[in-house]
Amino acid sequence: MTGTRGVESGDALLDRVFLNRVLEPGDETAGRWVREYGPATVVRRLRDDTEPPLPGVGPKRWQGLRARAERADPAQDLAVAQDAGMRFLSPGDTEWPRQLDDLGDARPLGLWVRGPADLRMWALRSVAVVGARACTEYGAHMAATVAGALAEQGWVVVSGGAYGVDGAAHRGALGAGGATVAVLACGVDRPYPRGHTQLINRIAGQGLLVGELPPGEHPTPSRFIVRNRVIAALTRGTVVVEAAHRSGSLATARAARRLGRHTMGVPGPATSALSAGVHELLRQDAVLVTDAAEIIELVGDMGELAPERRGPVLPRDLLRPGARAVLAALPGQRAARADEIAREAQTTEDDAVARLYELRSLGWVERHGDGWKLTRQTMMTARTGRSPC
């Protein structure tokens, strides 16, 4: 199964699949070869041992690429992919997400995709939610909550399928009946990590699995890091929930920053080593976010604003400004005459008296001889925030 073909078909498809097997993801030297010479010429040079090496590599590396080329069988890769329900997308296909072109020569040579949805359409309204594998309960809760709320608002949640924050984000989106994409650092026909087999198969059924590596390929530490640039490029912004100083998820945030995408962080306890990397991002140019509404305000369309955040409304907030000023002018522990109160409130004595009678009717003040005094209930209000009425 292949993607809907755009500018490439037939032999051009086989050339792309061949290069996808031979070249490592994110290899900018190889990307430059493809851009300058075209896939067909690069394939011919790799297959023909009479051809000189392409520029930018030494003899040892060229020999290694030639050894890979001898074993590559693109027709077999396509057959295995079709049996596994996978399709191959090339740049220029109608389903190809054009924002990946922002990666320049590090752009994927192609993508293997498993799942029913259209990747290009889903990527147009997507957010990456990434973070620590060994996350805390707080991190898992925040990732699932944020992802679920994003999904409910029609946003696609993209992550890496790993343990910890990634898995919580995928589950949060699926639990909300929403859309999620897992970008894997291995062949999308072999679930990794093994403990997430059920989750990854569920994503394949309800969402999308995406990867650069051909069928059967295994992950390596370097492939995880290189994979992160695809997560960053696919999405409008990256949210890091928990990350230590050396967390791989910070590579996603750095890639997002280089690409001009929004970079966001969910803060954690100041003493938590697992939030230290997030806090460092926030000290630079990442934006602090605490929920989906704040994320959407950044990555969404104009006018998609988060609600204004305010503390609880206190009873005295409901008073008119003049009455609040007079109430604030009364001494805390003694009675005061109207002229004294007027001076403190910066108003006339007649106005102060009118406001004092208004406040007395509401239970805030009482007459005390020739003066006015706060009621006992008002004194309690200052401590509890409850109304005196």
What can you see in these coordinates?
- With 389 residues, this protein is of the alpha/beta class.
- It is 45% helix and 11% strand.
- The strands form two sheets. The chain has a nine-stranded mixed β-sheet, with helices on both faces. A two-stranded antiparallel ribbon has the order 10-11.
- A hairpin with a 2-residue loop joins strand 10 and strand 11.
- The model is unreliable at 4-8 (pLDDT under 50).
Notable traits:
389 residues, single chain, two-stranded antiparallel ribbon, elongated, 17 helices, 9-stranded mixed beta sheet
What is the topological layout?
Elements: H1 11-22, H2 28-37, H3 39-47, H4 59-71, H5 74-83, E1 86-89, E2 111-114, H6 119-123, E3 126-130, H7 137-152, E4 156-159, H8 165-175, E5 180-184, H9 197-206, E6 208-211, H10 221-234, E7 237-240, H11 249-258, E8 262-265, H12 276-283, E9 287-288, H13 292-299, H14 321-329, H15 338-345, H16 349-361, E10 365-368, E11 371-374, H17 376-384
Parallel strand pairs: 3-4, 3-7, 4-5, 5-6, 7-8, 8-9
Antiparallel strand pairs: 1-2, 2-6, 10-11
Helix pairs in contact: 1-3, 1-4, 1-5, 2-3, 7-8, 7-13, 10-11, 14-15, 14-16, 15-16
